[in-house]
Amino acid sequence: MSFDPRQIRSLCLLRLSAIGDVCHAVAMVQAIQRQYPQLRLTWVIGKVEYQLLKHLPGIEFVVFDKSLGLKAYGTLRRTLKGRRFDVLLHMQVALRATIASLMIPANVRIGFDRARAKEGQWLVTNARVAPLATPHVLEGFMGFAAKLGVTDLTPRWNMHLPDEALAFAASQIGDNDRVLAICAAASKAERNWLPERYAAVAEHAIAQGYRVLLCGGPAAQEQQLASAIEAHCRHELTNLVGQTSLVQLLALLQRSSVVLAPDTGPAHMAVTQGTPVIGLYAHSNPGRTGPYLFQKQVVSVYDEVIAEQFPGKTVPWGTRAKGEHLMARISVAAVIKVFDQLMAVRQ
Known about the structure:
Elements: E1 10-14, H1 19-35, E2 40-46, H2 47-53, E3 59-64, H3 71-79, E4 85-90, H4 95-101, E5 106-111, E6 127-128, H5 137-147, H6 163-172, E7 179-182, H7 195-207, E8 211-214, H8 220-231, E9 238-239, H9 246-255, E10 258-262, H10 265-272, E11 277-281, H11 286-289, E12 299-300, H12 302-309, H13 332-345
Parallel strand pairs: 1-2, 1-4, 2-3, 4-5, 5-6, 7-8, 7-10, 8-9, 10-11, 11-12
């Protein structure tokens, strides 16, 4: 379907989850806002993700609470009853999102290109973004802005942290503090690095004059991992796991000197603040999901694992490596080398 982007007056964005992905989406949204400042923009978003982004200006948020089950779809339909958007950006490949999109009336419904429009997405859209062979997730999202005629696709973020969150972070990290923030836990335990290795890097950072903060959410496995890191460390660490809201965590990452994390949301939150990230990757392709501004600082064994699991084959760009102990291939020495290089540049 052809349309004139200059005639768009109302735009709905559907991206429910996850934390890292909505951080990528913010860069796309703000690129659109810079070119079309008068555009009315509505974002259908997950409940948790809303807590991180709710302070962004110029956006009407509609929360989709997946914990309500089937009722969530009816709630969304009733919330948008009587409205019709000029354009829907359908930016999530998941059956849940495909069904949710049916509750959103829109004239033009833009989805991914046919190769990426899985989980039935291609059935509920009538326009597509341009195909990309090897995109980072953020670049894939920027394709939606390009479809709307946006010319400046350089990713920039303005996350609008509330004063309360800034004050909290300032109470934890002084202006002259050098801080390594370790966000140790990924959504799946197999993507976590070993606690004794996190502790070894923490000890190295402390020896270089850094404070070390452990950050993360309230889930039991995150708190257990943080306790294990502390148990392996001779020096005291500041453990804030489970003690911060998402915006407080974002403010902490803003004030940190460097972040160490596996493939997890806080790594991408740190990117929005321009804070260097040392990403640890074994299961997913860092070229696709790594911390966007700091892909050269990634410590990855992904390529070697893929070469072993698919010998002599060229695999699709988003292929995941399988195995419970792949992260053990990442050495302490490799991480410390990147840490030292990064901190030498920032002295």
